[in-house]
Design brief:
The protein has about 400 residues and is of the alpha/beta class. The protein is about 40% helix and about 15% strand. The chain is built from 15 helices and twelve strands. It has an eight-stranded parallel β-barrel with strand order 1-2-3-4-7-8-9-12. The two termini are about 20 Å apart.
Length: about 400
Amino acid sequence: MERTWRWFGKKDKITLAMLRQIGVEGIVTALHDVPLGEVWTREKIRDLREYIESYGMRWSVVESLPVVETIKYGGRDRDHQIEVYKESLRNLSAEGIHTICYNFMPVLDWARTDLLHENPNGSSNLYFNYAEFAYFDIYILKREGAREEWAKFEFPAGVGEGRNVLAEADALAKTMTPEKDHALVETIVIKTQGFVSGNFKEDDEAPIQKFREFLDLYKGIDKAQLRANMKYFLEAIMPTCEEYGMNMCVHPDDPPIEILGLPRIVRTTEDIQWFLDAVPNKHNGLTFCAGSLSAGAYNQVVEMAKKFASRTHFVHLRSCHIFPNGDFTEASHLGGRADIIELCRIFEKENPSLPMRVDHGMTMLGDETRGYNAGYSFLGRMFALGQVQGILATVDRELGLEYKQPGFFD
């Protein structure tokens, strides 16, 4: 697979010169300075593409060309926003960029409750604690119906047996302080969303109120309606994708659970099969995020890879470990539930030129002091990339494929 890296543009503290030295071939990025809902102009795309190419790499994948909320909930201006989206697709194609990773998650792109959860070796990873998230939902967000929903919450078979998340959230409320509440809001709303979705920013004065306003947009939108809205969007853009050779690959919901009363429609094998069948076009495909999928105890990740490899346009290689109580953490790239070694075999057999990035990595050896985006450390991801490069070299030898490390003499 093509070894790629998510890079956040010219202001990223991790430079392209650094990435070139560690074996990165392709860059995964976006026009982070373009406001939501505006056309990506060919001039801006070209400027960033040429900058990337000046360092000997290519712009492999757009992650992401945002699908604005009005498209997701079916607002009055969604047709206009779809036309904006199609114009951006045409401009990307004109500059030779043909793979688009996007998501159809309402409001939250991804959710964690701890960004620096300590591992036994002293490094840290992203972590999700159900009780803390329930506390945020009930006591901070104060969402209508949240208490009743958490009272009915059940874990998948095999984890969280006998656990009462609501009772834990109520117990937590007795120990929380304004400072702890603020830290949880920063983690769930600001630090994990601001650099991804564009809906929230570090300097937002009232993020919870803004968050509630986004949630209100989805009142009355259930799973069936969100599916219908996704199908509407995909059917509208597929002619453009056909004409210009654009591969759309949706990212699974992260985590793959229903949260905050919002419908989630890319969680399971059945969900993925639905959207592929709903719009049966080769340009309608999947970002196979092994980390997101492995956070769901009901997902058999290797079997899913086998089933959907032919419709996968982009791969995120990471893995999650689910604790017996149901909470999960991001795991070593050689551990967890995802079985990355077997995933590499599957995807290398299917398409050895498929772009892959290691996605998130540990925070280690001072990464936490350097101001990197949550989950996107340098040393931790470099360590993970080294692990995956070793896996790929071994798998390629097994399959009789040539493996070449960029930047070295043969």
